[in-house]
Amino acid sequence: MVERCTSPIVLLCLFSFSALTLAFSPCPLTGLPLVRNISEIPQDNYGRAGLSHMTVAGSLLHGMKEVEVWLQTFSPGTHTPIHRHSCEEVFIVLKGSGTLYLASDSHGRYPGKPQEHFIFPNSTFHIPVNDAHQLWNTNEHEDLQVLVIISRPPVKVYVLLFMFHTLLTS
Amino acid sequence: MVERCTSPIVLLCLFSFSALTLAFSPCPLTGLPLVRNISEIPQDNYGRAGLSHMTVAGSLLHGMKEVEVWLQTFSPGTHTPIHRHSCEEVFIVLKGSGTLYLASDSHGRYPGKPQEHFIFPNSTFHIPVNDAHQLWNTNEHEDLQVLVIISRPPVKVYVLLFMFHTLLTS
Known about the structure:
Chain A is α+β, with helices and mostly antiparallel strands. Chain A has four helices and eleven strands.
């Protein structure tokens, strides 16, 4: 945001400002205020007990076309399905802890025994495009709250029908 | 992340899992651990006094191709240049407060007298693609810390050579 362009394109850009901005006109506003209080954003659980989902910036609500930002809270013991998607995904753990299961082989028909990664407050990680993964709140005493950033909204999630834990215990 | 795909494409996807994942093979890893402690990420100020910039997930460091996430802190009175970029940008204010100046007319040769938006802790906003904008920490007593999400990394920033405040006081 604060990097400085030192190339001649800066001056060129100023003189061609009008043409450039017409070429990249902003998305239409949706009537919502530009600055929004996150604590006032409606929550949903998509029918999954123990989940709270907020769309901080989204394609349908805010006209985002390239990125989407969610705030999700998982109660102790709850988790996502094993899933994958053909978009980039970045997580920031705001509070709580848990386990990320990441397919050790996303190129086969089955993801195989997953890698287990401990996630903790103020940690960040990203999921490689199309790698099967699952997030668990394995902390019995605290909610797991994560900020989630995805590309290419709206996300299309492919849910895998088997469970990592059966692989872990087999 | 936890939305469930209910269409037949789920089963189709499972049977064609191998082909699909080969078509979207993940970015190469950069040797950094998958889960990183944000408090251990190096900071830079890009030569701007009062700025602290961290790349939480980036194109050069982590192989991101579609989104990039920064953590930036502005000391009291500091600000970004007036700038614009042809990517989406989402802000989340983690602490502090300030003012967002957003060009009232990004389609002209000059951005014109900007809209002023008060930003506060736990607020979020996004910048329309190619709209000229500037972020100021107008709080004399506290740092302004924001999480910044951009699309299409690495960002190319066009810095405008005039200042909003001259428009505000003219």
